Amino acid sequence: MKGYLISVEGSDGSGKSTQLQNIIAYLEQKNVDLVVTREPGGTALSEAIRGLLLDARYTEMTAKTEMLLYAASRAQHIEQKIIPALEAGKVVVTDRFTDSSIAYQAYGRGLGDMVTDVNEIATGGCKPDLTIFLDLPPEQGILRKKQEQLHIMDRLELEKLAFHEKVYAGYQALLQKEPNRICRIDASQSIETVFVQIRKQLDFLLGF
Ligand code: TYD
Given the CA of residue 71, which atom of ligand 1 is nearest to it? Predict the structure, then answer.
């Protein structure tokens, strides 16, 4: 039995958390054998690495260290959690996956192809069957985040607009390269409209 890996990507403020909740509720209602996870994180060790990555105190973290920590967290996550779940025929929904490293580290930090090579090692070639990309230009995303009361900005969110513009360009490049795997959804639409479009993709993939 083969499972499915579905990743959800989007820039900060694209409504990713809300849509993840909608996806989970929908798949549960369909009685799908589901594993919900996230990156960086998903296992105890990967969550510990997440703590290092997002801690706003580590302003000295170099781009390469950052890339390797995301990849290390992913390697553990895949071997310990994702592959066993897929082998058991489950549907795995992950909040971010390797595309985030391409967008943030290869494009945002300017590390380029090195990120693809490192992630090839980390993933052993494990790729999502479907990636939902919630597309929102960074100026709009940052505005939405700022409007959220009580939100404490993490190390990545504290980056300047220029960084987020590069990340956004990274996602656009990925879309061009893999249009069959990555489904772009205009995240400036209403929550309901965005989810109708996501649901169509889920239905198609899972045969509902
Ligand atoms: P998180 O709080 O999960 O942010 P979001 O709600 O935007 O998903 O923090 C994850 C941060 O890490 C986010 O800013 C994107 C970044 N990131 C990378 O830079 N590279 C990666 O490979 C991954 C998985 C995330």
Answer: 22
